[in-house]
Amino acid sequence: MAPDGRILWTIDHISWYETAKIIPGDPGYFYLGYSYSGAVYAQKMDIQGHTYWPSPGSLLGAVMMDYPTNWGVEWRNFSYLTPYFYGVCNFIWTEMGGGLLQVQLMDSRGERKFRDGGITLTYIRGIQIMTEKYVVPDGEGGLTSVWRLTTNDVYAKHMNPDGTLGGPMYTPTSLKPPAVTPQIQGKYSDGIEYTLPQPGEVEIELFDLLGRRVAVIFQGYQHAGSHTARFNLEELTSGIYLLRLKAPGGQATAKIIILR
After folding, report:
1. Sheet with 84-93, side-by-side order of all strands
2. Are residues 43 and 162 both part of a single domain?
3. In 37-46, which positions are buried (b, 16+ CB within 10 angstroms) versus exposed (e)?
4. 87, 175, 230, 249 from 31: Cα distances, Å
5. pLDDT attached to residue 63
6. What's the Cα-to-Cα distance from 112 to each of 30, 62, 134, 161, 172, rounded to whole Å?
7. Which of 145, 175, 205 marks a domain boundary?
8. pLDDT score of 240
9. Is 88 within a domain?
10. For a tag on the chain, would you pick the N or C end, based on fewer CB atoms within 10 A?
11. Helix, strand or coil for residue 175?
12. What is the pLDDT of residue 175?
């Protein structure tokens, strides 16, 4: 709208639902943050109504954070400080009765700084609900997030520019997740099936009986739930090998026997 109240342009379906937010950016630009169909999206626009993410003219925007279909987004908030667009979201895990507070940064090209769902700041178990949350850039590529629970307790967490966290993780005894470790459900000739009780960095490695690592099957971030990892054992000689799965909550091992 012009200063005198005239409508200069209108674009339908550029963002979704009443929780979408408009965030001022650099002079002549602004940003949209919203959730839609299994993801949190971000869009960069100029005051002429042109869109830029993930490419010029795109309406839907760039994916900022992914979440599985059995999760939901309860609250979200956004901020901007050159050169990043910042987002903080409370993902609700309905099956486990809790949630995660995730943050993500988008650069000037509309690309995510951290993979998939972003960085987990904290988790909430039970009936505690985040009623407010804010994200404040620190000017160096990091941020501080502040949130309030229904108990009216207020908490804060700082994330460094590299994604590491400053200070203790918020895990009161009454809200700690159950002691569940990663589980390997089955193994077969070219892969394994496994379940993660919580999201985070996952590493799957193969060792011989002398403790030497012979292969890295997978390294990266994964959401909670069931997964499959494929691998090629053609180059390995006959023998007994140990498969180790390391993930948030602990680790699991399985024996693999190769016969030629």
Report:
1. 71-81, 84-93, 98-106, 119-125
2. yes
3. eebbbbbbbe
4. 11, 35, 39, 36
5. 92
6. 18, 9, 19, 13, 31
7. 175
8. 85
9. yes
10. C
11. helix
12. 38
From residue 95, alpha-carbon distances to 68, 99, 126, 197, 198 in Å are: 12, 10, 11, 11, 12
Residue 172 pLDDT: 43
Enumerate residue ranges in the chain where pLDDT < 70: 68-72, 74, 93-98, 125-131, 167-181, 185-189
CA distance 4 to 157: 42
Tell me how far apart the alpha carbons of residues 218 and 135 are, in angstroms, rounded to a whole number: 32
CATH number at residue 209: 2.60.40.2550
Burial class of residue 4 (count of CB atoms within 10 Å of its CB; 0-12, 13-18, 19+): exposed
Domain presence at residue 3: no
- The pTM (predicted TM-score) of the whole model is 0.61
Residue type at 233 in one-letter notation: L
Q: Token pair for residue 159? A: 């994330």
Q: Which residues pair with 155 in a beta bridge?
A: 147
